Amino acid sequence: MASDFSRTLALLRREKRISQRTAAGDLQVSQALLSHYENGLREPGLGFVVRAAEYYGVSCDYLLGRSLSREGGSVHPAAEAGSEETEGDAEIALKKKLVTDSAAILLDAAAKSGSNQLADGLTEYLSVAEYKLFRYLYAADPSNPAEAFRTEEARFDALCDARMKLAELKIQCAAKGGGALGLETEQIALPDLSLAALPGQYPGRAESLLQVLQNVSDAIEAFHPTTKKK
């Protein structure tokens, strides 16, 4: 918790554009103690966490690094009227919502930027990822003929990886206005994608993307011992 809490606490103060001294006074602690909290040298008690969450207008879950949603809400897919949904059905519905909402936000952000190059890059990357995943599932059934695809089983994976890596580079370039990798230079204006602005920009969908970001963040940090949660 310490690393997530200290980083978020300092970030929120900087976003509010107030001094450490001012924040310490408002939060009823000494400046030295607040400095220790922000630098991860000490862990706070529950009372301070609650006060800080109320002071900065975020949830305790967000402050403690348990959620990237500042409201701390959970994503719940809407159940169809009259359906008798099992727990497994609900879990699949949730996963579908997380993926489809997140992809929709990315593609919408590209569209709002006015860059066809960026939209093309995102579409290509997602399409190749879907192709790879389909072939994994297709190949799991030995009765499915491999000859259905032009690219043989032994080569498609590496070729897709290469195509996705190129698409990644083009996406990064296009997002900054192009000018390399065969992309034309252009004016680009991405919407505000800050974590604080996402819920307002994409109501009803932002929670899904924030949950995906949190899930992946937790997964990749597990491989990094220096940032592993205490």
Tell me the Rg in angstroms.
Answer: 22 Å
Low-confidence stretches: none
Q: Compute the separation of the termini in Å.
A: 6 Å
Order of helices and strands: HHHHHHHHHH
Q: Label the overall shape.
A: globular
SS field, number of helical segments: 10
Which properties best describe this structure?
single chain, mainly alpha, 10 helices
What would you note in describing this structure?
With 230 residues, this protein is mainly alpha-helical. Helices cover 60% and strands 0% of the residues. The protein has ten helices and no strands. Helix 6 packs antiparallel against helix 7 and helix 6 packs across helix 10. The protein is globular and about 70 Å long. The N and C termini lie close together (6 Å). 20% of the residues are buried. The model has no long low-confidence stretch (mean pLDDT 90).
